[in-house]
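ugh ok fine here u go
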Amino acid sequence: MKRTDLEIMAPAGNFECLHAAIQGGANSIYFGIGDLNMRSHSANNFQASDLKEIVRICSEHNVKTYLTLNIVLYGEDIKAMKEALKEAKEAGVSAVIASDMAAIMSAREIDMEVHISTQLNVSNIEALKFYAQFADVIVLARELNLHQVKEIYDAIIEQDIRGPRGELVKIEMFAHGALCMAISGKCYLSLNTYGKSANRGSCYQQ
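structure:
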């Protein structure tokens, strides 16, 4: 039996990976552009000029597109962040995955769908209720076990927790990811060893 209530998402750092994800049966792909995502050092990245082609290819295969804009943002990043969101909106990107409130609020200002990144460590229903003000999809903390995930899922239904679109909030879980020494991706090992912050997209993945 084919499940239609689950969405399988895969990362794509270049067009080769994008096509492989589609061929592998992904329902959606996530990707970064430039330096505003957590994989900007450890993986290839698209550029803003690729956005329309990414969306075109994915639309032909009924695959959703999610832009990761999930690094810790400093003041000097705000202009580039807003420009990336504008370009993503114009290209027709499905949603943005964000963790910094500046990115979350900027996306909401231009009516772009927001998915809360695992970087925000949403580990309980009260935290999920707060972020549901801004997002239709929330990526739960990686450290939760299946029992805890079910409790949150059941509470969403029982408490009728809805996102900005008026639909019940959806949850997302990592089935596979980097086995880094971190709490939901917030790691300082690379910063300590190499002076390169994982929370700024520069993890050395070593």
